[in-house]
Amino acid sequence: MSRAVLRLALWMAMPGISACALNGAPAPEPDRNATPVIARVAANRPWTETALTVHIGEQLFFTATGEIHWAATDARSGPDGVGGVRGWHVGRGGLVGRVGAGGEPFDIGSRTAPFPDKHPRPPHHAHPPPPITAPGDGALFLGFERFLPGDNQGSYEVTIRPARR
Q1: What does the pLDDT look like over 64-92, one tens digit per residue?
Q2: What span, in angstroms and rounded, lies between the C-alpha atoms of 147 and 94?
């Protein structure tokens, strides 16, 4: 699956989640009873294995904090990346994931605050970040949008929780 198709699928899933809450069905929530997986994603390597195996269709909640200094461009970025827009897309240096060593990357970003409404007309309502649905089976890796090798500094701390069933 191409990255553009995966972004579109993730974007299209968001309105459905909001609609669930409006239709009386509960919106997915993190399972607070599950032990979270906490991964440190260092800026000196393109991908970090999380020690978490995911399965296609599994819903996961992510939150990420931290800051990276990219030596090649002398820029700093948080998990949403340089030029990234929370809830819309991750910019250069932002947090991405993939399933398996050769999996197609998908956007994650910070996901720590409500997403802005994507509807073009008012009223606009922010909504909590929805879960990300695993696109395949395998080990979950975390990395950076358009990784730049060099003497990079910093890291992101990422907390991953499954959705409550």
Answers
A1: 999 999 998 999 999 999 998 887 789 99
A2: 9
Percent of the chain with pLDDT over 70: 76
Judge whether residue 14 has pLDDT over 60. Answer: no
Q: How far is CA 70 from CA 45, 97, 151, 157, in A?
A: 12, 19, 7, 17
Task: Report how far apart, in Å, the C-alpha atoms of 109 and of each of 33, 66, 89, 115, 156 are.
Answer: 24, 11, 8, 11, 10
Distance of alpha carbon 76 from alpha carbon 90, whole angstroms: 14
The average confidence (pLDDT) of the chain is 83
**Upper half-sphere CA count for residue 68 (Cβ side, 13 Å):** 36
- Through-space distance between the first and last CA atoms of the chain, rounded to whole angstroms: 27
d(CA 150, CA 71): 6
Contact 10, 106 (CB under 8 A): yes
pLDDT digits (tens, 9 = 90+) for 109-132: 998 776 666 666 777 666 678 899
Structural domains for the chain: 3-162 (2.60.120.430)
Length, in residues, of the chain: 165
Distances (CA, A) of 36 to 45, 51, 141: 23, 12, 16
